[in-house]
What we know:
The protein is of the alpha/beta class. The chain has helices at 2-12, 40-49, 78-90, 107-123, 148-154, 165-172, 179-190, 205-210, 259-270, 289-313, 325-330, 332-341, 350-354, and strands at residues 25-33, 53-62, 73-75, 98-101, 128-131, 136-137, 140-141, 160-161, 195-202, 227-234, 243-250, 366-367.
Amino acid sequence: MAIQSMLETVQDNGTTCEPANENDRILSIQSHVAYGYVGGKAAVFPLQCIGYDVDVVNTVNFSNHTGYGRFGGTRASAEELATIFKTMDEAGLLAPHRLLTGYIPNAAALQVIKELAQKLKSHDPHLIYLMDPVLGDSGKLYVSQDVIPIYKEMFSFATIITPNWFEVETLTGVPLRSLSALRNALFILHKHVPHVVISSIPLQPWLSEVLPETMQPPASTDNQQAYLLCISSSRTGTSSNSTVHARRVPLIPGYFSGVGDLFSALTLGHFNPSPTSSDGKFHSATQTPLSFAAAAALHKTHSILEFTNAFAARLPPEDRTTTDDERDEAEPVRKDKRMRGRELRLVQGQHILREEWREGQGKDLQLWDAFWDSC
Length: 375
């Protein structure tokens, strides 16, 4: 009854699922958890909400995400992944129009994914491949070093990549501490990838100082790092520079998992390389297909986070404890409760996911037209 009531509310609000082309299938290759929403659990349902059929291959099968501190399960071997792809191919089931890859457990498995991407791209040059190079966050790797060169080799097959700031630094070797460094990192990535979204950069003073005035935080903001910046960058044709858009969003305090997986899935789902309106014309003079998709993904992801955070704030005090490493180690149940309360509320928030996205709602990424000036 609750789900039915929710769907009726969606209809009453005039929001609709955006139907994809009926033949537009997505192959999603990433982690799976029995409980909670990370990896494929954070990606597949949102993609289905906006009209896609999604074929799912799990790279790991865990009880829950690793943020709980304890988990169990298995990792798919390279041989198991190769067998799945081979069997799908022989049965005529391996012909996606879009490919999404996320967490891959090791270099051997990633090599199999690389060979698959190469094969799919050779069979269909128009394949839209979004590669989320899941390496780590907040300055810490949570994969082995030997996957990094393989990800770099896979750039040439990708349409879009969605690294966070730490993954940009890891993949380019460029610490993001100045505008010139940010330009250099994007230049390196664009040598092979046409579309890059840096999903979240803390709005540190150096970045805030170079932002256009329209993207600056309110003057009353004391802590500039209370915001994150999302940047989309598209390089097409023979242009030496890319078209850059950006938007800041308030940082929601607390530990959430699966946010990047959700954002990447929604970016792929909303990306249309040749968008047209009913009159057959390009939909916008100020947006690129990537900035349009990234804006939709950013808005919906942030709205889901707000929705989840509001739910967590209503939990009993014992279920919303603050992080305390010493107490968490002594009483693991404290951390378990806190993690449970902050699992993304995707089913309950599906009205957000299903909302039809249109530009001009005040949530677009803004053109950073002076980004490459004085280079």
